[in-house]
Input
Amino acid sequence: MKDETRQKVKSDFKEFVGSAKQAATEISEQLGRQAEKILDEAKAVHRQLIVSVRLDDESVHRLEQLLEAGVCHTRSEAVAFLTREGIRARRDLFDKIDQKIEEIRRIREELRQQAF
Output
């Protein structure tokens, strides 16, 4: 009788542990989904400007690749990602543009000063 009781206790314990593992896995997955949702919402808060844009077929294909691969979760996020990466890749161009804009502002201010 002791062996039967022992076997029953072991069986019940194994079942309990299995159920606990399953519950922990489900809770972990739910927390992961919630954390991802919160992160996506936080990212969206930092975006200040909504832009409508027309894309060619290749650009759309590349956006879809980012979504399918899980790199981005929405097309909007994919466009923002590619825009950021494009700016980083052409930092030298934007540095030159910044210099020229400053020069244009300086010249405009000089002309205003001379006009008045």
Summary: Residues 83 and 89 are 10 Å apart (CA to CA). The chain has a mean pLDDT of 88. Helices lie at 2-46, 57-69, 75-89, 91-115.
